[in-house]
């Protein structure tokens, strides 16, 4: 009873009507990174329901194929790219082809991400943790945004970045790699917002609170805390993408 009340206050339920989604997304090209799991997968299912045309990005090719098959069965156009977004050279080479591959993109959801919890004192020989987290959570956001900027401009499009509410708080110990990468991307998005007129593309940030997904549920403490479902996380991103706001943050976030 108390848990359910707490859940409703801290995580007020999120939903979005199918009609509104269809009006905003039907027939438009939408790129989703991290489409194979958690929030990105829920987002993909919602977009399939709205008859968006999808370009899905992640590493798990089998899952990407299944999602594209489902999208096509539902009358959407669908393509995918199986790529490890941390691999700079492969990503750079692919980015060069992107404008031709996708000449008009209305929405780019930069959602792929990885969290890592390890203290700095346990990371003395693990510089790769910092590099990899930065490459995925920050660098790939910038690389894809730059490569798709002309296509986004063509469609009066938007970039929606899945950040974390934890990046707005005094930083909890153990999360230095994650927080640094999320804050770098936040800073890039906030600057892009100030350059909106010149860019011709709107950039938005969702400071996401806890969402139950394979990523967060690895942590036993988080697994047992009240949180949003992956579908509610997707609704937060979709509502932001349909709004004029720059950011989503939970009501209780400073
Ligand atoms: N869950 C939360 O509580 C929470 C809170 C705040 C913010 N977020 C943010 O929300 C976003 C989605 O997270 P989630 O909770 O939905 O996690 P998730 O279930 O683990 O999904 C992560 C997605 O990112 C993709 N991905 C991971 N590493 C990749 C790589 N190297 N190259 C390409 N794609 C990669 C994964 O696909 P493959 O494995 O197929 O590559 C998967 O589709 C992340 O940016 C995360 O930081 C989550």
Task: Write up what this structure looks like.
It is a single chain. The protein is of the alpha/beta class and 254 residues long. The protein has one domain (2-248): NAD(P)-binding Rossmann-like Domain (Rossmann fold, 3-Layer(aba) Sandwich), CATH 3.40.50. It contains eleven helices and seven strands. It has helices at residues 2-10, 18-25, 38-49, 61-73, 88-101, 127-154, 176-194, 196-199, 214-217, 220-223, 230-241; strands spanning 29-33, 53-58, 78-82, 107-110, 158-164, 202-208, 247-248. The chain has a seven-stranded parallel beta sheet with strand order 3-2-1-4-5-6-7, sandwiched between helices. Strand 4 (107-110), helix 6 (127-154) and strand 5 (158-164) form a beta-alpha-beta unit. Helix 5 (88-101) runs parallel beside helix 6. It is globular. The mean pLDDT is 96. The protein binds NADP nicotinamide-adenine-dinucleotide phosphate (NAP). The site of NADP nicotinamide-adenine-dinucleotide phosphate has 28 residues, from helix 3, strand 5 and helix 9.
DSSP E strands, number: 7
CATH fold group: Rossmann fold
State the domain count. 1
Largest sheet, in brief, is: 7 strands, parallel
Q: How would you name the CATH homologous superfamily?
A: NAD(P)-binding Rossmann-like Domain
Main β-sheet, spatial strand arrangement: 3-2-1-4-5-6-7
Question: Low-confidence stretches at least 5 residues in length (pLDDT < 50)?
Answer: none
Principal-axis shape equals globular
Instruction: List the helices and strands in order.
Output: HHEHEHEHEHEHHEHHHE
* Helical fraction: 40-55%
Number of helices: 11
What is the name of the CATH architecture?
Answer: 3-Layer(aba) Sandwich
State the end-to-end distance.
Answer: 27 Å
């Amino acid at each position: 009873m108390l848990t359910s009340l707490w859940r409703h206050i801290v995580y007020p339920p999120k939903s979005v009507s199918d009609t509104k989604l269809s009006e905003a997304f039907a027939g438009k090209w939408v790129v989703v990174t991290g489409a194979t799991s958690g929030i990105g997968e829920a987002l993909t299912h919602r977009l399939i329901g709205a008859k968006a045309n999808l370009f899905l990005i992640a590493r798990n090719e089998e899952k990407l194929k299944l999602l594209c098959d489902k999208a096509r069965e539902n009358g959407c156009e669908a393509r995918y790219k199986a790529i490890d977004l941390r691999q700079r050279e492969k990503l750079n080479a692919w980015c060069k082809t992107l404008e031709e591959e996708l000449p008009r993109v209305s929405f780019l959801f930069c959602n792929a991400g990885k969290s890592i919890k390890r203290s700095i004192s346990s990371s003395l020989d693990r510089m790769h943790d910092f590099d990899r987290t930065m490459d995925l959570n920050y660098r790939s956001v910038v690389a894809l945004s730059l490569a798709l900027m002309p296509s986004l401009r063509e469609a009066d499009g938007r970039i929606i970045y899945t950040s974390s509410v934890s990046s707005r708080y005094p930083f909890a110990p153990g999360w230095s790699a994650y927080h640094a990468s999320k804050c770098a991307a936040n800073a890039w998005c906030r600057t892009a917002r100030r350059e909106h007129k010149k860019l011709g593309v709107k950039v938005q940030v969702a400071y996401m609170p806890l969402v139950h997904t394979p990523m967060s549920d690895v942590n036993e403490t988080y697994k047992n805390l009240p949180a949003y479902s992956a579908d509610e996380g997707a609704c937060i991103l979709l509502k932001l993408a349909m709004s004029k706001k720059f950011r989503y943050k939970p009501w209780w976030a400073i």
